[in-house]
Amino acid sequence: MSSPNLHPMLNVAVKAARAAGAIINRAALDVEAVRISQKQVNDFVTEVDHASERAIIETLLTAYPGHGILAEESGTEHGAKDSDYVWIIDPLDGTTNFIHGFPVYCVSIALAVRGKIEQAVIYDPSRNDLFTATKGRGAFMNERRIRVSKRTRLNECLVSTGFPFRTGDNFKQYLAIMADLMPRMAGLRRPGAAALDLAYVAAGFTDGFFETGLNIWDVAAGSLLVTEAGGLIGNFTGEPEFLDQRECLAGAPRIYGQLVPLLAKYSKFAGLDDKLRASDRMRAVDPSAQGGDTYARSTIDATPAAAPETEPAADAAPAPRKLTRIRREVPVAPAEGDAAAK
């Protein structure tokens, strides 16, 4: 159902989101029957993703055939290729939650006009919650104006995040981040749908959100909701041009200002000194990270961590075991390791 108070393009986006939500809700009645495939390890796509994406694209292009499309599953193969108006679509954010019957997932649709997000819809079909925003007109949940939380003390705050789940994600870095943040806040949560996490920041349900490895369709709509609700959003160093940078930090202004100094050293855009501090922090949290690289997109296997247990034997016979060279590599100065990674 359209609302006369909404921008015409936002009304079309709402219609598209609700059409996708209806498909998702029907499938959720018998989620075990849904066909599932893997794009990569722990990264799932279902027939529901594809069906809801088709419904969204059909609705948008019927109304605006000259607009472009950037969608998670089909990329840019639909719509105009050179339009100033580009719809950015995630037809089912939280697919892993959906296929397990865990009811935290949503539809995310944003409209970028000459690269700037101007319309946003995030729809939670399991709760029938609709989040909308138009640039300069505020953010709304179910047609009620929303604002970010008023909390100013980090130790009173609830912050959401996403944990690494793909092969190649830097698990050790997340351990260090959690060690830095968890003692300083009331709680850390991992709901599992970044778009909905951002909507919750905008609504004041949580006070902040951070995550790495995100794509533009994960954050486009949520970014406008946050800013129109009075919040701030950027990368870990606080820079606002973050949409294509695969790291995101959002929050109420006072909380955002307290999170940036804590997270900045873990940003891929951090300076050398900050990278060295991040590497030191990783080793302090997890001694097996000795010689590891904070910013490498690889997960350190447990096998290298066992090397110190074999070192006493290596002292007796270093040449046959060929461990002398291994011990020489482990204590490489962090400055060299970190600089090489970048």
UniProtKB/TrEMBL annotation:
Gene3D superfamilies: 3.40.190.80, Fructose-1,6-Bisphosphatase, subunit A, domain 1 (3.30.540.10)
Biased composition (Low complexity): 301-320
Alphabetized UniProt keyword annotations: Hydrolase, Magnesium, Metal-binding
Top EC group: hydrolase
Domain of life: Bacteria
EC number in record: 3.1.3.25
Catalysed conversion reaction: a myo-inositol phosphate + H2O = myo-inositol + phosphate
Keyword Hydrolase attached: yes
GO molecular function list: hydrolase activity
Region feature (Disordered): 283-342
Keyword hit for Metal-binding: yes
Cofactor (UniProt): Mg(2+)
SUPFAM superfamilies attached to this UniProt entry: Carbohydrate phosphatase (SSF56655)
InterPro entries per the UniProt record, alphabetical: IMPase, Inositol_monoP_metal-BS, Inositol_monophosphatase-like, Inositol_monophosphatase_CS, Inositol_monophosphatase_SuhB
Family as reported in the entry's similarity comment: Belongs to the inositol monophosphatase superfamily.
Name recorded for this polypeptide: Inositol-1-monophosphatase
Organism: Variovorax ginsengisoli
